[in-house]
Amino acid sequence: MSLATAARLARREIRGGLRGFTVFLACLALGVATIAAIGSVRAAIETGLANEGAAILGGDAEMSFTYRRASDAELAWMASNATRASEIIDFRSMAVVPRGDDAERALTQVKAVDTAYPLIGSVALDPDISLADALGGQNGLPGAVMGGLLVDRLGLSIGDTFKLGAQEFVLSARLLREPDSSGGFGLAPRTIVTIDGLADSGLIAPGTLFESRYRLSLPENTDLATISKDAVDNFETSGLRWRDSRNGAPGLSQFVDRFGAFLILVGLAGLAVGGVGVSTAIRAFLARKTETIATLRSLGATRNTIFATYFLQIGVVALVGIALGLLIGALAPILLAPLILSVLPFPADFTIYPLPLLEAALYGALTAAIFTLWPLARLEDVRPTSLFRDAMEARAPLPAPRYLFAVVTLFAALLIAASLLSGSTRLTLWFAAGVVAAMVFLSLAATALRALVRVLAQHLRTQPALAWALAAIGRAREAATPVVLSLGLGLSVLATVGQVDGNLRNAIARDLPDVAPSFFFVDIQRDQMPDFSARLAANSEVTKVESAPMLRGVITRINDKPARDVAGDHWVIEGDRGVTYSAAIPENTKITAGTWWSEDYTGDPQISFAAEEAEEMGVALGDTMTVNVLGRDITATVTSFREVDFSTAGMGFIIAMNPSALAGAPHSFIATVYASAQSEAGILKELSTAFPNITAIHIREAVGRVSDLVAQLANATTYGAAAILLTGLLVIIGAAAAGQQGRTYEAAVLKTLGATRAQILRSFALRAALLGAAAGIVALAVGLTGGWAVMTFVMESEFEVIWPNAFLVVTTGLAANLIAGLIFSLPSLATRPARILRARD
């Protein structure tokens, strides 16, 4: 028989409708829809960021400098190339509201602007007044606007006054929205003032920590690539950082791209669970077609014709499922756009994007092919003798080698596609290895479970309901494997996320009081250090104080080559880094290689570099490194490596230099203060009153904001895991529906032998509950292993079992399978034994 014959037979089969393919369609459509929706949302955000690049950036281009303002030469270049320019100075400070002998204090991110700000867009304020009017001030005081959270925290009302440094400001309005905000993570709420208003504040002084940004409006048709190269060629060695509207928020774009890729991989895990449902549905469908297939074989149909007939039929159904998934995945983000935009802190342009849909369709087609080939390969076992009852049960455990080769090839194609489309081969391979390992473990667990319950059933004959349940689970035809696989994989992801999230929260609560300092103090002037240190030394609640001179520098060259050519895209060279100096080796510093300079050394500049980062960057002892500090290039030789531990939230510098290398550079000091929690308010009050220019960063609050961010990422992953779990529930429903005929026959036999409906129902309930609990327990083991691996090898932290999360995983598995099992068991109890047994004969 030819392919045409197979196509004709498949068409006749399809005419009968899609009965039996409901779970197949649902699993495939849900998996494809999840991936398509994630890809569409990611594409919408990326398009929004690209289209609104200038608005997000605040201009066509931006030139920024660390802890200095632009030089005359740089300002002249801007004037000759831009039609308009706006200067912004950004830094952190303490907002102080005096109230009698006491005061309210809070950290704020200050944006000092000029009269040209904003070049693009507008600032939204409450009350609805212009920014110029709000910053104009009243009663001789400069005006300011604040984020609502900060206003409420400080207990301010419109017209009240507060201080930044030594300068008093009047609050004119609440800040509702900044046009040039990409919604990035910040340690503190925003305050906007004028640059002129800060003139007497003492906050913008030589050596203080601030960043100056110059937003530029460029002439129409300006070639951004050309002007960018010109700016960098002229001023890169002075510490310039250039951005333009081609990528207004590069860090955010990179985060969206990487996290979106990760969520798509989570979606692929859900598609793998759906594949289990697809495979189960195909097995059940082919089991019902055994007599038809055997009849065709007896009439002369070849194995290839039979295979082609059902491959074409299932292929058509798979295309319907993929199309349905693409329709849902394309429309859902558009329909939910208002809700999504209300929670996104950055722009997104929701429409239909073909590439994410093509990606989802490719994944769906490959997954459907992988999970249908294996059961289709069983068609070779169907012979004319299968017209006799149960002949299909005598089948080979593995399909023919050509089918195994095809499955392996398709799986490799899926991995290659995921690697290329996600942009991270390493992440894809590790994720795939984890999913495959989990599925293998769950399959082995299901096999072991069946073997175990068969043994237990022999010893529990005095408890018939339990014995019947165990015997049913142990039978080969029972759906233990798909239940444990599908439900277990979804619960495994949930368990891993729950354990990691719980352990991170515990680590913060457990380690912070003992390890981390209470405060970082920055912008301490050199002449303030003696008094600052004396006040802390006199406080018995202060257990430890560390201080160091603080500058910021940009590594521009390594061994006289551009730093990026040597270190690639390593995070150390992505921006400016802390630079300190010390004559003697600082206390508790461990030199891992090389030697520290002598205390009276005044020769050529030398650097002691962080050992781990040096190894990652490929830096060796004797290499030279050019660091731009406040516009001045300092080329130094790397003479030692040392351990730098950032995990304690204490003081750590990537770069330390000999004092003479930085002689004359204006700078301030930073200090970390370790103290009891109950003394923190008093310390903050005393020091901020005595030194209004210094900024205090409360570590517990900062870590709390980081913890909230981690929780949000965990929630996003949990949503992906929930999609996997939903797919698993569909597989359970399919398995329960496929086993309904068997349960009906079993109920008829048990009734005939004298069992009551209550006993049979209890047996069915126990069967479902035991399978669900087993899936939950196995998933918990996988989740605990995954959580331990992440905390130990990625977070490098202690791991302990979060028992509430663990209990939730097991109970979810038990409840889900119990409910599905009972729904499909109740109709089986209502049938009459005589009709069922006669039909069986």
From TrEMBL:
InterPro entries assigned to the protein according to its UniProt record, in alphabetical order: ABC3_permease_C, Membrane_comp_ABC_pdt
Membrane topology, record value: Multi-pass membrane protein
Domain ABC3 transporter permease C-terminal: 265-378, 722-826
Main subcellular location: membrane
Residue ranges of the TM segments: 259-286, 307-340, 360-379, 400-421, 427-453, 768-794, 806-830
UniProt subcellular location: Cell membrane
Cellular component terms (Gene Ontology): plasma membrane
Keywords assigned: Cell membrane, Membrane, Transmembrane, Transmembrane helix
Highest taxon of the lineage: Bacteria
Keyword Cell membrane: yes
PANTHER family for the chain: INNER MEMBRANE PROTEIN, MEMBRANE COMPONENT OF PREDICTED ABC SUPERFAMILY METABOLITE UPTAKE TRANSPORTER
Protein name listed in UniProt: Putative ABC transport system permease protein
Organism: Shimia haliotis
Upper taxonomic lineage: Bacteria, Pseudomonadati, Pseudomonadota, Alphaproteobacteria, Rhodobacterales
